[in-house]
Design a protein that fits this description.
- With about 375 residues, the protein is α/β, with parallel strands linked by helices.
- It folds into two domains: about 130 residues, Aspartate Aminotransferase, domain 1 (Alpha-Beta Complex), CATH 3.90.1150; about 240 residues, Aspartate Aminotransferase, domain 2, CATH 3.40.640.
- The strands form four sheets. The chain has a seven-stranded mixed β-sheet, sandwiched between helices.
- α1 runs antiparallel to α7, α2 packs parallel to α7 and α3 packs parallel to α4.
- About 50% of the residues are buried.
């Protein structure tokens, strides 16, 4: 028996997306920029997908720029804004961002930009008052993740966006974990830029998008033929984009029913694991992604029992989950997200994440809880 509980890492490509990709590969394989019939057929595929993705977040199609994934979308947002300035300015990010935001921010610092990293509370939430206090006259961009991939916390994006816009700066959110899982409407949400990714919502790997509010000007990262409204040169990956479009359309149709189903399963698993005294939930239990559970092991020696230890043991039992700590040159590093939330280095080595999806059943939930309890009991007793 195998149970996949790592849907925040990636989702299986749904059969409808695979079917359209196969059709495109065999029938609409032309270059979308070509003016002849073969190109026109491919261009129509891209534009249909643009409409499908736009509808998922209630955007106009022209505001969707296709990329290779969420990382490129984040980089296009951050660098696309900042490269338009001849002199370094100031940007603000949170202390719990994905590396697709933190690494570009470090690059900007090396180039003379000032970067403020907003702290979070013990649940991983940014205090809007901290954003107000951090804004400066030369703040040009604020970027705060919508749903944190490691601990599941949802940020107060609407309030943060309003504060930013009142100041006159641009607001970006990495919504890769949120799109297709919670309702999003950029017509009412005060965001200027929003990143999303195909493979987080049952589309193929290799496709993503950046929503750019009309009127927002970005500098492209790539020079070339000027595809994607001049912001993302390079021949579009038509098959992947087509699969992305179909997955986005179906995610929108299924969103509310699936969201409620996942919350029920998530809460069932939380309940099943509640009698393990040393397994402590992390993240905000109210403002939380519907499919997401995260914990750390309070009693374990961080050098002997880490999150990766638990991941490996569950993998042997046929269950796939994730750990928050990272391995660099053979040495484990504590999770920067848990450290930012105030956890000790020992605790930040012991974080784990279980994320649910379309194929998750109640039986999966119950069996995974039994397996995790047995593994933890064995590990703690051995220790």
């Amino acid at each position: 028996m195998q149970i996949y509980l790592d849907y925040s890492a990636t989702t299986p490509t749904r059969k409808e997306a695979i079917a359209i990709m196969q059709s495109v590969l065999t029938q609409q394989w032309g270059n979308p920029s070509s003016l002849h019939e073969w190109g026109n057929r491919s261009a129509l595929v891209v534009e249909k997908a643009r409409i499908q993705v736009a509808e998922l977040i209630k955007a106009i199609p022209e505001s969707i720029i296709f990329t290779s994934g969420g990382t490129e979308a984040d980089n296009l947002a951050i660098m696309g804004v900042t490269r338009s300035y001849s002199r370094p300015q100031h940007i603000i990010i949170s202390s719990v961002e994905h590396s697709a935001i933190t690494e570009p921010a470090r690059m900007l610092e090396r180039w003379g930009w000032e970067v403020t990293r907003l702290g979070v509370d013990s649940k991983g939430r940014v205090n809007p008052l901290d954003l107000k206090a951090a804004l400066q006259p030369n703040t040009v961009l604020v970027s705060v993740i919508y749903g944190q991939s490691e601990v599941g916390t949802l940020q107060p994006i609407e309030e943060l966006g309003k504060i930013t816009k009142a100041h006159g700066a641009l607001f970006h959110t990495d919504a890769v974990q949120a799109v297709g899982r919670i309702p999003l409407n950029v017509q009412t949400l005060p965001v200027d830029l929003l990143s999303l990714s195909s493979h987080k919502l049952y589309g193929p790997l290799g496709a993503g998008a950046l929503y750019v509010r009309p009127g927002v000007e970005l500098m492209p990262l790539l020079g070339g033929g000027g595809q994607e409204m001049g912001l993302r040169s390079g021949t579009q990956a038509t098959p992947a984009i087509a699969g992305f479009g179909v997955a986005a359309e179906l995610a929108g149709k299924e969103l509310e029913e699936e969201r409620l189903r996942l919350i029920k399963l998530r809460d069932r698993l939380f309940s099943n694991l509640a009698d393990i005294p040393d397994l402590i939930p992390t993240g905000d239990m109210i403002h939380r992604l519907p499919h997401h559970l995260s914990f750390y092991l309070a009693s374990a020696d961080g050098e002997k029992i880490t999150g990766k230890t638990i991941v490996r043991q569950l993998n042997l039992a046929g269950i796939g989950i994730s750990a928050g700590s990272a391995c660099h040159s053979g040495k484990l590093s504590p999770s920067p997200v848990l450290l930012a939330m105030g956890y000790s280095e020992k605790a930040a080595l012991g974080g784990i994440r279980l994320t649910l999806g379309k194929d998750t059943t109640e039986a999966d939930i119950d069996w995974s809880a039994i397996a995790l309890k047995q593994i933890l009991q064995r590990l703690i007793n051995v220790e």
